[in-house]
């Protein structure tokens, strides 16, 4: 069997078959092929980790020597670096010498240079209460001030549509300013952010003093999937009623039409009271909107709208579709 060929008889389980197709789709196999000589099957899930290095790294030869004799990958023909799968972990692959984990990001993605978010995990004292769905499923009522319509957060990574390579910390240039700057201490504009693991807010448009339209970033390397959301809010005024409307969902139905609520997390409440994620929101409605589909197709877009009052000033809040459990958490 020559390099580049694969013996399909070696795929002995649906998992192996699925993982080969999955990895091939996302760029781990380049078409030049790697033959598994020693074992005849694919590495375990713990071994399937991209070992792409920074483009300016000078450790290519050292890494090749490090894996020589240890990897089950054929060395008959050297694969391109972003397609190589190492046999095991190293500090550049995500596991540090002290055992901590650093996720690798696609090179086009901006990642905040902040400590990894660690929400406290607490079980609700009582079963989560559903809300009573509204009988009117039409568009939510906007704020009175229709003259306000300005982009207050804008971030969309310029990807090529497929996986190229990854890097700890993502984009080499770091993060540009995606949110607006506050004019003064009286400015009530919400400061949005989502450039952290599993965050996916793409754009926020202010349409009223406390009213915002939100666009989710599409799941990477998919056909514009949106369902999950997870983002951060700051500069919130306690006691004010805010409305948030996510406007680019694709599913015609949603659990939000049957009583589910979004999740909210308060950093101050977590630190002072030990309160973790909670369900929140009023006036929750999921409905078909009249926005054009991004691909100019006949598909429709749907909106999720809810209102919320926040308990604390000078707090940091998070909204999420469900309890975040990131890749780093899994590791």
From TrEMBL:
Its cofactor is Zn(2+). Residues 192-271 form the Cytosolic carboxypeptidase N-terminal domain. This is Cytosolic carboxypeptidase N-terminal domain-containing protein. It comes from Rotaria socialis. Residues 47-82 are annotated as: Disordered. InterPro entries: Cytosolic_carboxypeptidase, Pepdidase_M14_N. The lineage of its organism: Eukaryota, Metazoa, Spiralia, Gnathifera, Rotifera.
């Amino acid at each position: 069997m020559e390099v580049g060929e694969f013996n399909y008889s070696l795929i002995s389980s649906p998992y192996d078959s699925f993982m080969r197709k999955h990895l091939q789709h996302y760029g781990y196999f380049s078409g030049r092929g790697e033959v598994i000589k020693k074992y005849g099957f694919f590495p375990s899930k713990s071994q399937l980790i991209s070992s792409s290095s920074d483009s300016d790294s000078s450790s290519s030869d050292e890494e090749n020597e490090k894996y020589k004799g240890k990897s089950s990958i054929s060395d008959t023909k050297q694969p391109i670096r972003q397609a190589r799968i190492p046999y095991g972990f190293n500090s550049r692959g995500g596991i540090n010498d002290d055992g901590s984990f650093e996720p690798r990001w696609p090179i086009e993605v901006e990642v905040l240079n902040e400590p990894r978010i660690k929400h406290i995990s607490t079980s609700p004292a009582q079963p989560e209460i559903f809300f009573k769905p509204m009988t009117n499923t039409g568009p939510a009522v906007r704020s009175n001030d229709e003259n306000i319509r300005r982009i207050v957060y804008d971030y969309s990574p310029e990807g090529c549509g497929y996986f190229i390579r990854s890097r700890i910390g993502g984009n080499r240039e770091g993060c540009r300013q995606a949110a607006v700057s506050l004019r003064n201490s009286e400015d009530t504009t919400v400061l949005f952010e989502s450039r952290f693991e599993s965050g996916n807010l793409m754009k926020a448009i202010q349409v009223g003093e406390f009213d915002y339209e939100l666009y989710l970033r599409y799941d990477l390397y998919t056909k514009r999937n949106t369902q999950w959301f997870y983002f951060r809010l700051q500069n919130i005024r306690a006691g004010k009623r805010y409305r948030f409307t996510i406007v680019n969902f694709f599913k015609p139905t949603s659990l939000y039409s049957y009583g589910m609520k979004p999740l909210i997390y308060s950093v101050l409440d977590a630190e002072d009271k030990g309160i973790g994620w909670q369900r929140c929101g009023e006036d929750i409605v999921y409905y078909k909107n009249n926005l054009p589909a991004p691909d100019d197709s006949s598909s429709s877009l749907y909106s999720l709208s809810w209102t919320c009052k926040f308990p604390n000033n000078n707090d940091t809040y998070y909204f999420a579709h469900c309890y975040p459990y990131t890749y780093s958490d899994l590791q």
